[in-house]
Amino acid sequence: MTEEPGQKDSELGHLPCSMGCGHKDDKAGLALSQSASFSHQPPSTPASKEVWKKGGRMFSILLAVHLALLACTLVSSGAFEKIAVHDYDVFFLLTVMMLIVIIWIIFYLAGTSRCPGAILGKDSHAGPIWLRGGLILFAIFSLVMDVFKIGYYSSFYSCLSAIKIIYPIVQAIFVVVQTYFLWVSAKDCIHVHLNVTRCGLMLTLTTNLAVWMSAVTDESVHKAHSKLKKNMTEEIFRWLLKVGMRSSSVEECNCNSQICQIFKNGYFWLYPFNIEYSLFASAMVYVMWKNVGRFIDHHSHHIQRLKFRLFRRTFFVGIMLGLIILVSGLGVLILYEVQVNSSTESSKKSQALTMYYIFNIVCLSLMSLVCIGGSVIYRFDKRDMDRHKNPTRTLDVALLMGAALGQYAISYYSIVAIVASTPRDTISALNLTYALLMIAQHTFQNVFIIEGLHRQPPKEDCKHESHQKDLYGLTFVNINAVSLRVPDTGTTLAASAAAGTEAMHASDLIRSLTAPKKMNWRRKFLREISMFLLLSNIILWIMPAFGARPQFDNDTELNFYGDSMWPAIVDICLPFGIFYRMHAVASLLEVYIMS
């Protein structure tokens, strides 16, 4: 990415800060900077361009890389019993990181509130309302999970390390503070304390990723223990669970009470929401990091206030078909959980796998066809491509392409195992079809979403603030219309425009009546497609996130790759596939609103 030249951090000293905001020179410098950044003319001096400090960015990236590697090392080591790294060591590191982030967020909010000139502009594309609303939804479930964790660990606190009770308390405070911070500051383009802000944002991003890695690892270990419990005696299973306890006696830490079992099962079921919260927060923090020191060009970066009309301009076909897929998927999930996870009979397991694969094959086929149809409709769309600089959109595209690699990897591993294995039965054929359709659906959906994100919103939904701009566009259209109607008789364009006033008004009337009708059917079909894909991605996120994982229940891949390699592949790649579905939901909602 080409970095634009900008002024140094020291050159921003004229901006008011928390240490001194009342000097006349500071106010004069601020007014000069604001007048330059709000001007419709291109900036004439390098001082009015965006500030991209390579040194500050590089230092913050190095800080994030080292912390991420340290957290990844501890989290992965704490997942194995033979390594002398316990889970309370991981909790201690995460608790320290979250406390530092909380302190920095308070410093950031206090500093920007005391210094009105710290934020010279807002990025209208960053932190849209539906993304912040989803963040709050996941934050609420994360808080409930922390409450369950506190209740579970408090049931036998006498034999546990104190950090196991402190960690969920600090995490709950961290979730509340960070959610408020992202709600009020997601659009900020800050221009004071640039290096400190960059490092603080990178620390926040790394902390969220570390919490995400810890949650994914904890959930994977829990799933593995659930599988082992079916095939091992109770004594061996208790020995495997002896991690991070003060007492050597496992009997003291048994969770025997009914309320303890509710807390234990409850917080494991809420892990998917906490995982998605960490990833959503990481994405929003990254956009804030990109906007540090950025000057917004208000001439090209105009704010478009789009209205979210769910029950208008739609045929309800996409919504109804998506709801049918969603409800059917929930039924398949319940039956799958009952027949696979709660039964040891092989016949019921085969029936559940067959039902799961058939549902997913039908769903993925419909989604692929719909995405292809949407891409074809975009070929006839007359809207211009939005080529303005947009860090949020760039991140959305990168996350879609990157997260899809997880599901691609699982599908290709499955294809190789099925083709190379013998004998081939019905479940293997369904599994092969499911893997191929998964690759095709991800590819077609990414193309559709990326095309939609790069389209400008409809002109009738854009509210232009300048009346002169509208008048200029109307005159330009009228002159073109008149030039097409007047024959070439040697008259000048100005004379033709002056003599054809009635023709201009008639042409305007015809254009206003015909243009919306031509665009109307395209917009309706795109909204139907977006809503169907949105609801379908929700159920495809719910099923693996809440236990329907045929990769662990199908013996083809497990026998081909072995008991150690295949679970490791799935544990690494599946979280990216789950995140892809939820991120696709947010992107499709934006495409729906933009259509």
Automatic annotation (TrEMBL):
Q: Where are the transmembrane segments?
A: 58-78, 90-109, 129-153, 165-184, 268-289, 310-336, 356-378, 398-420, 525-546, 566-593
Q: Kindly indicate whether the keyword Manganese belongs to this entry.
A: no
Q: Name a Pfam family for this protein.
A: Otopetrin
Primary location recorded for the protein, binned into one broad class = membrane
Superkingdom, according to UniProt?
A: Eukaryota
Subcellular localization is given as: Cell membrane
Family named by the database record: Belongs to the otopetrin family.
Lipid bilayer topology = Multi-pass membrane protein
Which keywords label this protein?
A: Cell membrane, Hydrogen ion transport, Ion channel, Ion transport, Membrane, Transmembrane, Transmembrane helix, Transport
Gene Ontology molecular function = proton channel activity
Its name, as the record gives it, is: Otopetrin 2
Where does this protein come from, organism-wise?
Zonotrichia albicollis
Q: Which GO terms describe its cellular component?
A: plasma membrane
